[in-house]
Design goal:
Elements: H1 3-11, H2 20-31, H3 36-41, E1 51-55, H4 65-82, E2 89-94, H5 100-113, E3 117-121, H6 127-136, E4 141-145, E5 154-161, H7 171-180, E6 196-199, H8 201-215, E7 227-230, H9 240-247, E8 252-254, H10 280-289, E9 293-297, E10 304-309, E11 315-317, H11 320-337, E12 345-350, H12 356-363, E13 367-371, H13 375-384, E14 389-395, E15 399-402, H14 411-427, H15 432-442, E16 445-454, H16 457-473, E17 478-479, E18 482-489, E19 494-497, E20 503-505, E21 514-518, E22 523-528, E23 534-543, H17 551-568
Parallel strand pairs: 2-3, 2-4, 3-6, 7-8, 7-9, 12-13, 12-14
Antiparallel strand pairs: 1-5, 4-5, 9-10, 10-11, 14-15, 16-23, 17-18, 18-19, 18-21, 19-20, 21-22, 22-23
Helix pairs in contact: 4-5, 4-7, 6-8, 8-9, 8-14, 9-14, 11-12, 11-14, 11-15
């Protein structure tokens, strides 16, 4: 956008309805001729299909009371149209980030100003508890103020529908249309305090009870499992220790330096449990006390990282695909042993997650439903297939959902399940890691890897767009010496066999994702992030594992294969 147009757009924020502090912030940027002004106004903060996430501050491309307010006013208008002549209710939660509590109150004020009853959590709570609360309190929608594992300057706004899942078609597009039709002076900030009710312990207890019921299986000797847990300064500290205690796990060691909720996340570069560095304090503690398992969660407690001891006794952080494979295998096995499998069950996964989950489910004659990236699509499966029973589901980005009492990824219940698997294995002279290797031996040794390329600002967005254009125009014909057999283009909903030229439709909603699959089972996926200025490349390779004793050798071969592919695609 041209500089004069940016300036015109910014000057609108120097008068009503914007408050004096907002006006002052913008005026200072204009006076200083700050480069930051362009990034704040070159586009509007989009209310996307799951909500919003971005850097906090004044401006149209920032998270602030006005961008959040417009989204909330639009959502309020849509809910009133969707449920006419009904006493409307909404639940609101927030995480540990700067301004989350204040933003949550502003959002509550706007809903109440629109005659909608609000259940507002009295303090920070995990995102999965908000999903649970929507159904527990029979709400029409829910909101959580969070930016997940993003840096401290970020915040965000996630929208849930009355089934407890994040919004999906057709609601999402209709809400976006409603939001985009509004001006900032259409927002009603005049709270009706009588319609705002603060909630806490009653919902907490119900949520933890449900987590224990769904995430544990009465395994004995729980006191024999030594657990290290870190909340990474986030919300899980208010739920996971209590859930572990209630489930019977008593030997729990919390990383004290990371126990206190803090939006600056002072002890880590990034509060992301996918990264070994984020869990270093926890794994160091595990080595000092000889713990069996390490659990770390992201700030809003929907994703978890699990580190366990490998065959040589070293603490090893599992990736999300490995964790979801072990969890899915264990859950299906429990259903099988309880005689509950009758062909009407399914598990959920995503297009960029490991195919190993499908192999596991198939071995028990259980269906695997595949959706786009994000748990809202797994929640949609649960809603649409009520004649089938949902066992569990996950995705590669360290999220898992046990049963359907929560309709989003849930690190509280997944923590209980991980510990249940670990103690069950220990009782049988095995381990969490050996159970993973047993799965590899039965099916195949799968290894996955993720590369995220960050490209900020308008130029970065253009570069990411061009990368996807190039991958479509000149598709790869071969990857690491194996011919590309299939190209899945989810933007056009087409699966094309590059060897025969035949195409078939993909029955999944459209998304800007490309996946290459070769004759030897290698998969490479490219997907621009919907919430961050980055493009992600997912790699999956596999080889047979004839014996657990050969696991280290086979893993090394798979790592080398991934390295060759990254070099071949010039992504290193």
């Amino acid at each position: 956008m041209e500089a004069n147009k940016i300036l015109e757009k910014a000057k609108v924020w120097l008068k009503a309805p914007f408050d004096t502090s907002t006006q002052k912030e913008i005026q200072e940027l204009i006076t200083a001729n700050s480069d930051d002004l362009n990034d704040r106004f070159y586009k509007d903060m989009e209310f996307g299909t799951g909500g919003m996430r971005g850097i906090m501050g004044a401006g149209t491309n920032r998270i602030n009371k006005y961008t959040l307010g417009r989204a909330t006013q639009g959502l309020a208008n849509y809910i009133k149209k969707s449920f006419p002549n009904k006493a409307l209710k909404i639940a609101i939660a927030y995480d540990c980030r700067h301004n989350s509590a204040a933003f949550a109150k502003i959002v509550a004020d706007i809903f109440s100003a629109n005659d909608i009853k609000v259940f507002l959590f009295e303090d920070l709570r995990p995102t999965p508890e908000l999903s649970f609360a929507v159904r527990h309190l029979a709400c029409d929608a829910g909101i959580v103020l969070t930016a997940s594992h993003n840096p401290p300057e970020y915040n965000g706004y996630k929208v849930y529908w009355n089934d407890g899942g994040q919004i999906v078609p057709p609601e999402d597009k209709e809400i976006i249309k409603e939001v985009n039709s509004l001006n900032f002076d259409d927002i009603n900030f005049n709270a009706n305090e009588h319609l705002i009710e603060y909630i806490g312990k009653e919902v907490d207890n119900a949520f933890i009870d449900a987590s224990v019921k769904n995430g544990t299986f009465n395994t004995s000797n729980k006191n024999e499992l030594k657990i290290v847990f870190t909340s990474l300064h986030g919300t899980s500290i208010v739920s996971i220790p209590d859930a572990l205690k209630k489930a019977g796990f008593k030997d729990v060691h919390i990383v004290k330096e990371q126990k206190k909720p803090d939006g600056d996340f002072p002890t880590v570069k990034s509060p992301n449990p996918e990264e070994p560095e984020a869990l270093k304090m926890a794994t160091d503690l595990a080595d000092r006390i000889n713990a069996d398992i390490v659990i770390g969660t992201d700030p809003d407690c929907d994703r978890l990282g699990i580190a366990v001891r490998d065959l040589e006794g070293n603490i090893k952080l599992l990736n999300g695909n490995q964790t979801m494979s072990v969890m899915t295998n264990y859950l299906i096995k429990q259903w099988y042993q309880d005689g509950k499998l009758n062909g009407k069950q399914f598990v959920g996964s995503t297009i960029v997650s490991t195919n190993l989950v499908k192999d596991i489910a198939k071995s028990y004659n259980v269906e695997t439903k595949i959706g786009l990236t994000g748990f809202k699509w797994i929640a949609k499966m649960v809603r649409e297939f009520e004649d089938q029973e949902f066992i569990g589901g996950g995705e590669e980005s360290f999220g898992y959902m046990v049963g359907d009492f929560v309709r989003d990824k849930d690190a509280v219940t997944a923590t209980l399940l991980a510990c249940e698997i670990a103690i069950d294995a220990k009782n049988n002279s095995s381990s969490f890691y050996k159970e993973l290797l047993n799965i590899y031996e039965k099916h195949s040794f799968y290894k996955e890897h993720l590369i995220s390329l960050v490209k900020k600002g308008a130029d970065g967005a253009a570069a990411i767009k061009q990368m996807m254009v190039d991958l479509r125009k000149t598709p790869l014909q071969e990857i690491d010496g194996s011919k590309v057999k299939y190209l899945f283009d989810y933007q056009d909903s087409v699966k094309k066999c590059l060897l025969s030229g035949k195409t078939e439709k993909i029955d999944i909603p459209t998304s800007n994702v490309l996946i290459y699959e070769t004759e030897d089972g290698t998969r490479v996926a490219a997907r621009p992030s919907g919430t961050e200025p980055k493009i992600k490349f997912y790699f999956s390779v596999n080889l047979p594992l004839d014996s657990i004793s050969n696991a280290i050798t086979v893993e090394k071969l798979l790592d080398q294969k991934i390295e060759r592919i990254i070099k071949e695609l010039q992504l290193n």
